[in-house]
Every structure is written in C-alpha cells, then in structure tokens.
Specification:
Chain lengths: 167, 139
C-alpha cells in the first residue's frame, strides 16, 4: 500500500493545476501566456533532464556508497567543498532539475552543507559572465562571483549547523 | 551487465518519481511570472538604503526564472536610480532563494533542509550585496 507521503507530489501538481484553471477563468490571456511559457521551459529542460538521467545512472553504476561518503560525506573535508563548488558552477539548467540527483546523493550520505554549497554555486554562471559585465561592469561582476563562491561555504556550514541544532 | 541495467532502472525510477514535482514547479514558475507585471517591481523600492536591499532580496526570492532576466531587470533598476545594494541582493536572491521552487525542494530534499537553506540564502543575499558594494568602492 502506498503511504500518504508518496502522494504529496501528486497533490502538489493537482493544486497547481487547479490554480492554473482558476487563473484561466479569471484571465484567460494570462493563463494562455503562462501555458506558452510552460511549454517553452519544458522544451528547454528536456536536454537537461536527459543529462541528469545519464549522470544519475553513471553515479549509480560507478560510485559506491563508500566512495561517495569519502568524497561528499561528513569527513570529506576541503575536497568535498571543492567538488560541490565546482559541480555547482559547472552545472546548467534550472535549479529544480537537480533536486532528483541531489536526493539520490543525499540518501547515499552527501552532507547537507555540500548540497547547500552546490545549490548556491548554481548562481555562479560563467557563460553569463560577459552579460553581467556589460550590465554592471568588470570589477563588480568578478567580485560578485568570487564573494558568492566564498559565501557558499559559510552558507553550507551554517545550514548544516542549524539543521543539527533542530534535530 | 546486470549492474548497468539496475543502475539505469534505478535512475529512471528516481526521475519518474520526481516528474509530478518538476512539472508542478515549472507550471508554478510560469504562472507567477505571467501574473506579476514586471513594471510592478520598480515601484516597490523606497529609496531607503537599509530597506531597499531587503526589498530587493524579497522580490528576487519570490520571482524565478533565467538569470538573464534578472540581469535585464537589474539593469533597468540601475537606470532608475535604485541602489547597487538593492540590485545586488535582488540578483543574488533571484538565483539562490526559491519560494516558488520550495514545495519541490521540500518534497525531494526534506522540509527542514529546504526551509533552512532558503532562509540562510535570503540573509546571505544581503551580506553578499554589502560585501560586493563595499569591495567595488574600495577598488
């Protein structure tokens, strides 16, 4: 028998669909424009979805839980932080597309601080750096990126500490 | 060979379980982006140097989407005389805090983790803004 918790995802989707239908009855143009945006995002995330599927399969196949804990677990040290930061900077696509992979890694023992650092560094977009420089200048853009990378470690540590206190 | 098939199956099952959450969050992002007019954002800033970074971080936390959109909006804020502190906290929170994505994050990574991460990211958006603006002024 399925537990009540396993239906939460479907309740969430149903809730959003109801919101969409209500919006359609209030303002059909707005709902149509939202639907077009939805289709556009879906088309854009398909390649990311495939990439994440491949990454998940590779992780399952090659990385044994013991190795994963060594590189991303509690005692991974500076190596773990460097790995989480680099992966966060290099990853692409919307943040939520990475949740399933992170969920898998979390189950296998990836520490919460490293998940936090990974998610924070998704904000450091090297391909978008030229655009940021055009809008806000070279010194500002480089400094912002460097500060964000450093801050991601502090945010990871603090998030982890708070979670430990809450437990 | 069996291990490879098992790994692929496991990955497929994991992703399949996440589909309703991912579709829901993409629908929600599209809906919020369409409902809130972009012209509204500028009118929310007060010109107060203390308050505006918080307002910037709140707007960035609520909205979601491609970072390019946040750069364009940030550029518009700059032209309208909004402080760099407010613009930076807006830019940072846009990508690091996700109120719209929070249900998905909670369901997949745990409620305690999602809430703690988003709250700390909100305050760090303001800290990053202060450090960056001070740093640029010192250079």
């Amino acid at each position: 028998m399925k537990s009540e918790k396993s239906y939460a995802e479907w309740y969430f989707l149903a809730g959003v669909l109801i919101l969409f239908i209500i919006t359609y009855f209030i303002n059909s143009d707005m709902a149509k424009s939202a639907l077009l945006m939805f289709m556009d995002i879906i088309l854009k995330v398909i390649p990311i979805f495939i990439l994440i599927f491949i990454l998940m399969a590779i992780t399952n196949y090659f990385i044994k839980p013991k190795a994963l804990i060594r590189y991303l677990g509690r005692d991974s040290g500076i190596k773990g932080w460097m790995l989480a930061i680099s992966a966060g900077v290099l990853s692409s696509g919307p943040i939520y597309m990475w949740y399933p992979l992170l969920k898998d890694l979390q189950k296998q023992g990836m520490r919460p601080g490293l998940i936090t650092a990974f998610l924070y560094n998704r904000a450091v977009k090297i391909p978008l750096l030229p655009l940021l420089i055009v809008y806000f200048g070279f010194a500002y853009s480089i400094l912002l990126m460097v500060i964000m990378i450093i801050v991601s470690v502090f945010q990871g540590m603090i998030t982890e500490k708070i979670m430990e206190i809450l437990e | 060979m069996n291990r490879l098939i098992d790994s692929v199956k496991k990955a497929f099952k994991s992703l399949l379980n996440s589909v309703p959450v991912l579709v829901g969050v993409i629908l929600l992002v599209s809906l919020v982006s369409s409902i809130i007019p972009k012209s509204l954002y500028t009118s929310l800033f007060t010109g107060n140097i203390i308050l505006d970074p918080f307002i910037g971080a709140i707007i960035g936390s609520i909205l979601a989407g491609n970072p390019i959109t946040s750069y364009i909006l940030g550029g518009e804020f700059l032209l309208q005389g909004i402080s760099m502190l407010a613009i930076t906290s807006f830019l940072v929170s846009w990508v690091t805090v996700g109120l719209v994505q929070m249900p998905a994050e909670s369901m997949l990574l745990g409620k305690k983790f999602a809430v703690t991460r988003n709250i700390t990211a909100f305050f760090f958006a303001i800290i990053v803004a202060v450090l960056t603006v001070i740093g640029v002024n010192l250079l």
